[in-house]
Amino acid sequence: MIRVKNLEKSFNGKIVLHDVSVSFEPGKTNLIIGRSGSGKTVLLKSISGLHEPDKGEVWFENVLFNKLDFNAKKEIRKEMGMLFQGSALFDSLTVEQNVRFPLDMFTNKSLEEKTERVNFCLNRVNIINANKFFPSELSGGMKKRVAIARAIALNPKYLFCDEPNSGLDPMTAILIDALIKELTEEYCMTTIVNTHDMNSVLEIGEKIVFIHEGYLSWEGSKNEILHSDNGNLNDFVFANALAKQLRSPVK
Length: 251
Known about the structure:
Layout: E1 2-11, E2 14-24, E3 28-33, H1 40-48, E4 55-60, E5 63-64, H2 70-77, E6 80-83, H3 95-106, H4 111-124, H5 140-151, E7 158-162, H6 170-187, E8 190-195, H7 198-204, E9 207-212, E10 215-220, H8 222-225, H9 231-247
Helix pairs in contact: 3-4, 3-5, 4-5, 5-6, 6-7
């Protein structure tokens, strides 16, 4: 479990997160949603250690993560998997080398052991016979799958996904969502997904956190979100539905 208590973060004197307290549960897909600029990405990065909070606490189980020194944080980071927006694969590395990267960084395993783990992870995300390909040779959906394979290479307890469906067609986005949920349940990870995609919310959102203008405005399940009396949340849901309708081809 990950718990956030009274978290605040500002940039250049502007407060982006205001006193956010929330928990994220293991074995579930926990979604952070909100409009662009709402603070959801800052929240995700503050939890994962990519940003240092100005105030508040970030707990991984019973460990106060944001108060640890560099070496102690590194030990917790070994238990994290990161799926970045745009996949963030290294263009100069092959698929195999990309997935092996966290194993090279954080383990002392032999090359044979690392290669075995790489192949296991690639097979798990249904990437076959692509070890020697470079990212430029992959489709957008394949890049996401390779990035997921890299994110689970260390068998993490915590998985962070920043806009995993960005740039994907609707069908591929559904497949990526399903894969993230399946892996979360299979490995009982605490998965946090930052998204503005209502399809993802309704497909895989087991716990949903809505951030509005830097505040925790609402939290609940996908079954509750369509019956909320939160005006800001309802505006967000309606805007997503309208945008989807406008993007749909005229029949």
